[in-house]
Amino acid sequence: MMIRLFAGAAIVAMLSACASVEGGPVSTASAAVPKASGYFAQASALPFHAPDFTKIKDAQLQPAIEQGIAIKRAEIEAIANNPAPATFENTLVAMQRAGQMLNRARGVFDQLAAANTNDTLDAAQAALAPKLTELDDAIYLNDKLFQRVKAVYDARAAAGMTPEDAMLLETTYADFVHAGALLDAAQKAQLMQMNSRIAALETQFSQKLTEATAAKAPVFDTREALAGLSDDEIDAAAKLAAEMGQPGKFALALVNTTQQPMLVSLTNRETRRRLFQASVNRASGGDAYDLTGTIEELADLRARKAALLGLPNYAAYAMYDRMVREPAEAIKFMRDFVPAVAATQAREKAMLEEMARADGVTALEPWDWGYYAEKVRKARYDLDENQLKPYFEVWNTLENGVFHAMEQFYGVTFKRRTDLPTYHPDMRVYTVIDKDGGELGLFYADPFARPNKQGGAWMGNFVEQSHLLGNKPVIYNSLNVPPPPAGQPALMTFDEVTTMFHEFGHAMHGFFADQQYPALSGTNTARDFVEFPSQFHENLATVPAILSHYARHYQTGAVIPADLIDKVEAAATFNQGLGFGETLEAALLDMEWHDISPSESKLNAAAFEAQALGGMALDTRMIPPRYRSPYFRHIWSNGYEAGYYSYIWTEMLAHDAWDWIETHGGVTRANGDHVRETFLGQGHTKDYEVMYRDYAGHDPRVEPMLKARGLTGVGGE
Length: 717
Fold this sequence. Notes:
Blueprint: H1 58-80, H2 88-97, H3 100-115, H4 119-140, H5 143-154, H6 163-179, H7 185-215, E1 219-220, H8 231-243, E2 250-251, H9 269-280, H10 292-308, H11 314-318, H12 327-335, H13 338-357, H14 366-381, H15 385-388, H16 394-410, E3 413-417, E4 428-433, E5 439-448, E6 458-463, E7 474-481, H17 494-511, H18 527-538, H19 544-550, H20 562-570, H21 576-579, H22 581-593, H23 605-614, H24 633-636, H25 646-663, H26 669-680, H27 688-696, H28 703-709
Parallel strand pairs: 5-7
Antiparallel strand pairs: 1-2, 3-4, 4-5, 6-7
């Protein structure tokens, strides 16, 4: 989600061509910093330096980033070649100031390439990936620069630094070592070749997966094949088919996960089978969209890269800066859940089989699970997900739900703006106002799915907070709520509501950033910590006083009935065999891919996955992992390699942290201040364990999560 070092979205100060670095002038050869030109040469004139999308053309982005790369290279060389003795200011702080144009351009480009891409942006992304990797190598494998960082690091005991200064030094030094700074010249050359190829493959994977997910939408000839869907959903399917060049037919768009939301509603079993098979085979069909070869090469390169750096596997390499630092610890943490989850899967499967037999289904298949789980849910809990959607209109949920929750908990308010341009007309922008009346930053909401938008949901920054640079945050949330038919309201499932609160938890992590240095600001934290604040904020969606404020029928304005909420809560622990099981399987699969050594890295993806799933002691045939290997975007292109366990680890943190809220008076302003002061506003200025203990007063406990998941006392737990 975030790059920890040198990747702030908008750094507004830079070394100029005639500048000198503290401690002495920069040599003429080192100071030849190219002059910036074009839109991104200067900070935006809009409030908070927000990007002016009326002045940004797609074709200008690649040249701007290439220019930014050249400028940052020269700035880094100036720092590395400074003849003055290395100090914290002329080395570490100077590095934090470098790269303003590149970061401004990338802040825009990275989001457009993910949320509103086209052929121009796709081509630019493919061309830029190796160049950006080469820039990273030019920084981290620059021996002169590393020796300056090392000199400051070695003298740190006598430096008298602030705690944030000390953390910046510690993490920067660790990042250099992690990147290969201790390798010899021949090894560095080999590493740079690997890094360039890895970057190209990761970009190729991401782009082809987006294309495959759109192209593999199954098409049906008749409206009757979609029985069980609403009229609006069927009309949307007809529109999609027409857009795919098949007017008069019906296409069901795929979401990024294995299970598809419409499987719970479709009454035609053959339609369910085709939708499920389209999902699981989207990137492994032996056609132009097949990504199995890509992931085989990536796994091999990652294993060999880890070995070059003296590590047994890529998981050990990737986890160097995590809250959980050892792969074995993460694996044990997850495997401890297996007995309870396996028992739950078996028990729930028996329930579904009984329900299916009434329909004449003698052998339950994976595409049946969601459908019969929904029937069991209705029978046992009298709960139909379609009963909930009319109460969750998108913009009302954001403005009267999420924003209201932030006001109640933190005293933060929001003011909509219509004077700032966006990259898509379906977006909205808000000024975020702190409890003291000061402005915290800007928020951009981009909630709707598009064919040229990657799946899932995410948060990011156009501008990152930094006192050093005088920046306040400009933050966006991207979701994939299906857009409504013309003239109809945009209604969400309850899962999508939870996702909206989740992503805004990331946003608040960014808005409450109060750091000097962009590398330590806001969400620039470890993979297995950054999801903690977001999952923590999911709990706000069902706080009664908050829920009653936003869960209102889009036609009548009536508050969602209490008995409907009671049904939601009663059903909360049902279907954990799928809900938790598929996530646990995906996290274990991720670790299997990144636990291989170079001697075993030349493998067949399908056979490797089959072997890995077969060893999990879970029902992986009936409940496949949330992502099969060929479409597991998190681990092949989004930076979650050997890190998907983070969602489970941080869920554990979030449940334990919410238990503290419930036992200390609930959603009060005092408790909100405590959250902000102990972890939500700390960025990475403290160790993660210290932040958690500052908040909770104890180390994290797994028991609240087991209780919330309904796994207490199941399968030996």
